[in-house]
Design goal:
Blueprint (H helix, E strand, L loop, with lengths): L16 H22 L2 H5 L2 H23 L2 E2 L7 E5 L2 E4 L1 H22 L4 H24 L4 E2 L12 H21 L14 H13 L1 H7 L5 H36 L1
Antiparallel strand pairs: 1-4, 2-3
Keywords: Membrane, Transmembrane, Transmembrane helix
C-alpha cells in the first residue's frame, strides 16, 4: 500500500539562530582562505582553492532548489537572510557560502591526498570524517529549525538522515578526484574552468546516487521500499568512494611498478 507524499512545511525563519549560523559559516570560510593566502598554499598551488570555492558556491545557485524538491528538504519561506528564491525554495546566504567551504574545501583536500598517492584506507578514513562533519552541520540546521528534511525519510534516526551525508561527502570526493585528473591540464586562464567543474560533478553525483531514495520518496512507496532506496543510495556512494580509493592507491603504486 502506498503512502501519501508530504507537502513542504511553511514557517518563518528562526532568529538569532540563522544569523549566528551565517556568521559561523563566514568565519570558517575566512579561516580556510587565510590559511591559503598566508600559509604558503597560494604560492605552491596558485588560485585553485578560491576558484573551487567560487565554483561550488555557483553550483548551489543552480542545483540546490532542484534537489531540495526531489529530496524533500525545506528552508523557511520567510527569511531575512534570503539570497534568492527559485523552484519553491527560499535559499539563505549561508547555503552558497556553506557549499564553498564544505564541498570546495573537502574536494581540495581530497585532490591533495590523491596527488600524494594516499592509501585506500586513508581515503576511507577521510570519507568517514567528511560524512560525520556533514551530518553534524545538517543536523545543527535541523535542531535550530533553519532547515530540515521532511516526509518518510529513511535512516532519519537522530539528526539529519544518514543517507544524505553519504551523498554530500561523495560529491566532494568526486570533485576532488576530477581535480586530480583535470588540474594538470588546466594551466593559466584554463583554470577558470574550475568555476564550472563543481556544478558538473556535484549535480551528477547527487542526481545519480540519490536516484533510489528520491524515487521512493516521491512515489509514495511503503516504508520498507523507502528504506531499501536509502540503503541503495548509500551503497552507490560507497562504490564511488571505492573507485576513488583505488585511483589514489594506484597513483602511489606507479613508481614501484616502474622500478
Amino acid at each position: 500500500m502506498s503512502e501519501t507524499i508530504p507537502t513542504m512545511p511553511v514557517m518563518p525563519a528562526t532568529e538569532p539562530a540563522g544569523t549566528i549560523f551565517l556568521i559561523g559559516t563566514c568565519i570558517i570560510m575566512a579561516a580556510i582562505l587565510a590559511w591559503w593566502a598566508f600559509g604558503g598554499e597560494r604560492k605552491r598551488r596558485g588560485w585553485i582553492l578560491p576558484l573551487v570555492f567560487a565554483g561550488t558556491a555557483l553550483s548551489a545557485v543552480m542545483i540546490e532548489p532542484i534537489y531540495d524538491n526531489t529530496l524533500l528538504y525545506w528552508y523557511p519561506d520567510e527569511n531575512s537572510l534570503a539570497f534568492f528564491r527559485a523552484y519553491g525554495r527560499t535559499i539563505p546566504w549561508y547555503v552558497p557560502l556553506g557549499y564553498a567551504w564544505f564541498f570546495g574545501g573537502s574536494a581540495y583536500l581530497v585532490w591533495r591526498v590523491i596527488d600524494d598517492g594516499a592509501s585506500a584506507a586513508r581515503i576511507w578514513q577521510l570519507f568517514g570524517a567528511t560524512v560525520f562533519v556533514d551530518w553534524l552541520a545538517v543536523s545543527i540546521c535541523e535542531w535550530l529549525d533553519l532547515s530540515a528534511f521532511y516526509g518518510n525519510q529513511p535512516f532519519h534516526l537522530f539528526g539529519s538522515p544518514l543517507w544524505f551525508s553519504f551523498c554530500d561527502a561523495t560529491g566532494g570526493f568526486v570533485l576532488g578526484a576530477a581535480m586530480a585528473i583535470f588540474v594538470p591540464y588546466l594551466q593559466g586562464a584554463r583554470r577558470l574552468w574550475l568555476l564550472l567543474l563543481p556544478s558538473f560533478t556535484y549535480a551528477s553525483t547527487l542526481g545519480s546516487t540519490t536516484a533510489p531514495v528520491s524515487l521512493a520518496l516521491n512515489s509514495g512507496w511503503p516504508a520498507p521500499l523507502v528504506w531499501a532506496g536509502g540503503a541503495a543510495t548509500m551503497a552507490m556512494c560507497m562504490v564511488a568512494v571505492h573507485v576513488i580509493a583505488q585511483m589514489s592507491q594506484g597513483r602511489s603504486a606507479k613508481p614501484l611498478q616502474g622500478a
